Structure to design on (742 residues):
RNA sequence: GCGCCCGUAGCUCAGCUGGAUAGAGCAUCUGGCUUCGAACCAGAGGGUCGGAGGUUCGAGUCCUUCCGGGCGCACCA
């Protein structure tokens, strides 16, 4: 096991545009067109990157020794973490790499290197030792490092540029379910990692929630309203108003109706064809716009959309802009995209074969990938020319039509979903000539406005969206192929830079365990009961609705809070319960890595113990309680650090737990960088938990308030303070608040 | 048939650029509340990392192949 610390990261840090730093969310700045900022080096760099400096001087020293003593240079030097803190803080396996080249035993090389290095130790390094078969283990100056952590020196994160995150994107025809929650929580957490805040410079960020308000799913609910319920525009209006007046959720109503309609289509074999035709006619009317069907659709889709925003707001999830498919259609984004694609030669009219009469695009998989192949071959000669026989474009043209090509425009002249998506993504990158949405206000959050697209002129002072430097699409893994098609289109058009900065933030679905499905009262076939999990289905009305889950979590938390804090006011208990519920839910969705299928079970999701959000929240509350009882503050404890003689304590046997706690608190920047680089928020969730575990361990080992030695007591308080600070930050990025008490 | 993902402790999952004795949580068992709150901590048992080859000083991690499971491969949207 090893880990990397950004403080020791050899990579150069990206330039920071100091001028863009804002501590508060401000729509004027966040959504402005990309500001090309001339990178400047922050003046604080020298002090902020002290730890990185340790490593740099360390590796530089070793390189110098290698060059002078053995006449070799290494491209990079690996730096690892020893298995136990007792062996040091850093481990260099450099001797292993050199063993063969120098025809010398690793341990002998390590011995020579250690001798040379010990003669001139870099600042912050206490000693060098040889360990195992030839590791160079480095011990740090614990007091020196701890003081820098206490002063909150940390490596900078972020850079210039505008990054667009698309997440949630629920069809506005039914209630959000647990699968949508995973999507929204992943996207929202990632957005928090990127965005500027008081801890980091970050990147400029825009959060978009794409609304497919003219799709077949909305059409289905419209069919239900108009043909199953026999409602018209006015009576649908009444229905929406009535449900609102009764405090009923319109999205729940649609959830049931959608399932009924889906069944109704095929319920009577004699009428199946007729009903399918009705469905199609409804869809076309809806796409066309300017008719009663479209108005009903807009009414219901907008009402459901408002509910989705409410649901997500319960979890602290907010959006900046809601682009709708209706505007992509009505503002003719596709026409501009089509012209561009033809100009760039990626879209062509098929004149033969099964796709005759369609405008098609070659699939991503059919593209020759020269660079990848040559790289693989150079690494491993055994992978050679067999797979180089993949058909090239030229060959395909000679051997007939590409039957595997993706149809973008149907033979009847209508554009497919992928076509619309290509147009939308060209717009995201500012590559769609002459096209932009109209923008109008839609929903007011406490601190900012959420805008929605319109085909009318924009509101005054509407911000500009689009023109992103990089984009992240939080879309489940089942849409892998369609996403790759869009990326392939960009690449094919020569927008390679954009294609490289297009991240399909893919994740696996949330399914139900058979037991959970049975508990909810669903019919589960014998076959399904044998499976590990069952896919949720909006069409079948099969799943756990997001609001139901939040309600259950809140109720469960409330029971606990009522038992523990009968003295607190009703409002306070409600607030704490909500914070715990959100903490449990968000952590649950974030603790799994993206491509793990979550088999949902209430037992796991409703747990507040073990590896959960509330566990971390509880650790923070404990730390806060110490300062309350001690009559001092975390800030005061940290401020006292420079004056304390802490080296003897940290270097002692009993100081190891303390030191481990300090070391772990310093890794937040690493984890954030790692989570961003890999698009994997789970790493941060894991870290928050480990930090809480480490703190709890320290908490039980040292009784702070009873400590009689004044120096020790202050050091203990500072340890609690730094742990509390970093746990709170880590949870903040996960979108989880720390309650006052719990 | 093709593409992508997964297979690690009884269960649910981590394991980043290949590194030292493969880790958590849950469950089970044992111990710890008159303490800064036990939504906690300490300890125990539990592993052929799906199988087989290969590369490497070193493989859960990289390559090949096989097995098992999931998802996706429409002129639907």
């Amino acid at each position: 096991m090893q880990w990397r610390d950004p403080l020791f990261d050899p990579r150069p840090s990206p330039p920071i545009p100091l001028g863009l730093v804002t501590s508060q969310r401000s729509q004027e700045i966040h959504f402005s067109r990309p500001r090309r900022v001339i990178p400047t080096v922050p003046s604080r760099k020298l002090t902020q990157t002290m730890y990185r400096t340790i490593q740099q001087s360390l590796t530089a020293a070793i390189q110098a020794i290698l060059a002078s003593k053995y006449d070799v240079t290494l491209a990079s030097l690996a730096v690892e973490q020893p298995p136990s803190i007792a062996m040091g803080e850093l481990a260099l396996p450099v001797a292993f790499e050199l063993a063969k080249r120098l025809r010398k035993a690793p341990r002998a090389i390590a011995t020579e290197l250690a001798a040379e290095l010990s003669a001139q130790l870099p600042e912050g390094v206490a000693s060098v030792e040889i360990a195992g078969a030839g590791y160079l283990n480095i011990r740090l100056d614990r007091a020196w490092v701890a003081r820098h952590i206490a002063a909150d020196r940390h490596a900078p994160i972020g850079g210039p540029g505008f990054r667009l995150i698309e997440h949630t994107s629920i069809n506005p025809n039914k209630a959000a379910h647990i699968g949508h929650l995973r999507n929204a929580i992943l996207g929202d957490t990632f957005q928090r990692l990127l965005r500027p805040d008081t801890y980091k410079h970050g990147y400029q960020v825009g959060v978009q929630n794409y609304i497919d308000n003219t799709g077949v799913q909305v059409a289905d609910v419209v069919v239900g309203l108009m043909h199953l319920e026999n409602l018209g525009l006015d009576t649908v209006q009444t229905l929406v108003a009535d449900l609102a007046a009764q405090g009923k959720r319109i999205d729940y109503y649609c959830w049931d109706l959608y399932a009924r309609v889906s069944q109704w289509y095929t319920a009577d074999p004699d009428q199946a064809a007729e009903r399918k035709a009705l469905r199609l006619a409804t869809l076309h009317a809806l796409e066309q716009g300017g008719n009663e069907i479209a108005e009903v659709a807009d009414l219901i889709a907008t009402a459901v959309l408002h509910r989705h925003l409410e649901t997500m707001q319960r979890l602290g999830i907010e959006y900046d802009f809601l682009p709708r498919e209706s505007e992509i259609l009505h503002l003719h984004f596709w026409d501009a995209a089509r012209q561009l694609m033809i100009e760039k030669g990626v879209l062509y009219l098929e004149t033969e074969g099964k796709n005759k009469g369609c405008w098609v695009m070659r699939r991503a998989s059919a593209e020759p990938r020269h660079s990848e192949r040559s790289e693989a071959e150079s690494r491993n000669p055994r992978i050679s020319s067999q797979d180089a026989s993949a058909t090239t474009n030229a060959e395909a043209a000679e051997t007939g039509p590409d039957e595997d090509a993706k149809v973008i425009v149907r033979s009847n002249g209508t554009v497919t979903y992928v076509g619309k998506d290509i147009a939308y993504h060209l717009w995201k990158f500012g590559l769609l000539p002459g096209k932009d949405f109209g923008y109008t206000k839609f929903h007011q959050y406490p601190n900012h406005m959420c805008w929605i697209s319109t085909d009318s002129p924009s509101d005054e002072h509407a911000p500009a969206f689009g023109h992103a430097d990089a984009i992240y699409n939080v879309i489940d893994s089942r849409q892998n192929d369609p996403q790759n098609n869009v990326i392939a289109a960009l690449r094919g058009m020569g927008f390679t830079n954009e294609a490289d900065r297009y991240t399909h933030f893919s994740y696996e679905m949330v399914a139900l365990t058979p037991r959970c499905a049975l508990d909810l009262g669903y019919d589960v076939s014998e076959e399904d009961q044998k499976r590990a999990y069952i896919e949720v289905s909006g069409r079948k009305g099969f799943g756990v609705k997001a609001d139901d889950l939040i309600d259950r979590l809140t109720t469960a938390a409330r029971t606990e809070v009522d038992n523990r804090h009968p003295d607190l006011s009703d409002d306070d208990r409600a607030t704490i319960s909500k914070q715990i519920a959100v903490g449990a839910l968000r952590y649950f969705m974030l603790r799994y890595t993206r491509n793990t299928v979550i088999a949902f079970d209430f037992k796991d999701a409703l747990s507040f113990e073990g590896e959960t959000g509330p566990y971390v929240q509880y650790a923070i509350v404990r730390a806060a309680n110490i300062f309350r009882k001690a009559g001092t503050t975390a800030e005061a404890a940290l401020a006292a650090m420079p004056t304390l003689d802490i080296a003897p304590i940290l270097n002692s046997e009993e100081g190891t737990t303390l030191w481990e706690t300090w070391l772990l608190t310093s890794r937040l920047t690493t984890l954030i960088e790692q989570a961003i680089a890999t698009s994997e928020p789970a790493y941060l969730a894991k870290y928050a938990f480990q930090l809480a575990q480490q703190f709890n361990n320290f908490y039980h080992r040292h009784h702070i308030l009873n400590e009689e030695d004044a120096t020790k007591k202050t050091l203990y308080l500072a340890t609690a303070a730094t742990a509390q600070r970093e746990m709170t930050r880590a949870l903040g990025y996960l979108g989880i608040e720390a309650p006052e008490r719990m």
